Amino acid sequence: MPVLKASTRINERGNNMQWTNILVPLLGGEHDALLLKGAKALAEPFNATITAAFASPSPVTIFGWVGEGGMGPTDVAISTLQTSIDKGQARCRQLLAALDYPKTNFEAVSADDWVGLRSVSRLADVVIWDRSVTRGHGFLASAFQQILLDERRPAMIMDREIFYGGTVAVAWDGGREASRALRRAIPLLRRADRVVIVSVPHAMSRPCDGQRAIEYLADNGVQADQEVLHTRGDAGPIIMDAVRRLGAGVLVAGAFGPPRLQRFIFGGTTQFLVDGTGHAALFLSH
User: Fold this and answer.
1) Cα(69)–Cα(74) distance, rounded to whole angstroms?
2) What CA–CA distances, in Å, run from 191 to 3, 34, 173?
3) pTM (2 decimals)?
């Protein structure tokens, strides 16, 4: 089960690194309550604000493709869609109120190129997503990809409730994405019982033994161990095997993507981690 733990291991250099805003895109569906509980778990140690963003399609956009002489939408169809949107928004407001957390914001954004949701995400330290969305399914799939890859906002991907305490694994190759993920995950890593740097040397494009990451974490009040995996094969399955063996509740990883022309398709290792199932939540950063 994904777990984190409160800790006092903070030195002078890193004592200002904390999360102040946790964003949760919502649809008014069955998984919203779980995502909000995850946001509360991440926010409470920092007294951070939880921003719930209800995302909905615009009736005008949905029916805007109808041309002159075409079969246009009826007033009943538009009204039915708007009623459904209003009900979803009301449910999200109720769930946010029931969370019993003192610092919350509510935003209503439309799906028109996700401009509204992307704008809200820019001041978020972490965005919480349901795992089904990150696999490319559902209404928010495109928004997830844009916010992670274009806006470069860290994602916490979960399909079950998270708690404090336990082991956090960090997939490490010394590259730009992995380094950025490590830095952004410091508040999370400080609250783990154990942090393990996991490296797969044969899959790295450069020599890297993880010692620099361990020293960086130590400077930020986090003591970490290292696992160097010499198993041959694709890095993704090797990393996930290590996560299961370690009993890690969270995996921290960099998001790797191909050229920008294909920016909504992840590279092989990232796609495996995103698609993977198991008990670990995934903290992903690009």
Assistant:
1) 14
2) 9, 21, 23
3) 0.85
- Residue for token pair 């994904």: 2
Can you read off the two tokens belonging to residue 225?
């161990």
Q: Environment class of residue 15 by beta-carbon count within 10 Å: exposed (0-12), middle (13-18) or buried (19+)?
A: exposed
Residue-wise pLDDT for 4-25, tens only, equals 544 433 333 444 479 999 999 9
Q: What's the CA gap between 246 and 194, in Å, rounded?
A: 10
Give the per-residue pLDDT at 13: 41
Cβ atoms 254, 286 nearer than 8 A = yes
pLDDT tens readout for residues 148-166: 989 999 999 988 888 767 9
- What does the DSSP 8-state code read for residue 74? P
- Whole-angstrom CA distances from 230 to 204, 274, 284 are 11, 23, 24
